[in-house]
Design brief:
It catalyses: UMP + diphosphate = 5-phospho-alpha-D-ribose 1-diphosphate + uracil. The protein has six helices and 15 strands. It is of the alpha/beta class and 207 residues long. The chain binds uracil (URA).
Length: 207
Amino acid sequence: MLHVVDHPLIKHKLTIMRKKETGPKEFRELLREITLLITYEATRHIEVYEIEVETPLEKTKGYYINDKDIVVIPILRAGLGMVDGILELLPNASVGHIGIYRDPETLRAVDYYFKTPKLHDKSEIFILDPMLATGVSAIDAIGKVKELGGKRITFISLIASPEGVKALEEAHPDVDIYTASLDRELNNHGYILPGLGDAGDRLYRTK
Ligand code: URA
C-alpha cells in the first residue's frame, strides 16, 4: 500500500530539493531531514513491549521498541543519503547495503553488492531509495531480502512515480511504500517528472 506523507515541512523541504540551483550540501541536509520526518510515519506499525520504569515519584508502565530487530538497507548509491536521517530516530538499527544497477541492454537488475545482517521473522526491515522510478531495483532488492528470510518489509522513498508504485505493488503487495511525493510520470530515460533529476549526482556532485 502506498502512503504519501503529507506535511507542510516535507512539502517545503522537498520544493527546495527540486530546485536545480540547490547545491549538494543543502540537498544532503534536506534528504536527511525529510527521511527523518517520513520515518516517524513509516514506523507507526512497529511493535512495542511493556516495561516498568521508576520515575522520581513512583513506578509506572513504559514502552520500548525493540530497535535491535530493526534493519535499515539503503540501495546504493543514492539510498546512502537517507541512512543518517533514519538512524537519528533508530540509532540501534543494523545497516545492510544493496548495490544494484539496471543493465541498459537487458533492462534487468544486476546486483553487484549485497550484505545484510541476519534476517529473521521479526526483523523490521526498511529499504531506502530516494527515487522509486521504474521499480526494477526496488523489486529486485525486496526479492533478495525475502529470499534471506525477511518478512516485515517497508520501502521508503522521497519521490515515487505512478509506474514504479504500480510495478512494486504488483510484485510485492505485502510491502508498504512510504514517500514524500507521488509525481506525474516517468520519461523515456526512466527519470521521474517533474522529479529532481538524478538524486545520486545531486548528492555527490558527479555531474
Ligand atoms: N533515479 C534518479 O536519481 N532520478 C530519477 O528521476 C529516476 C531515477
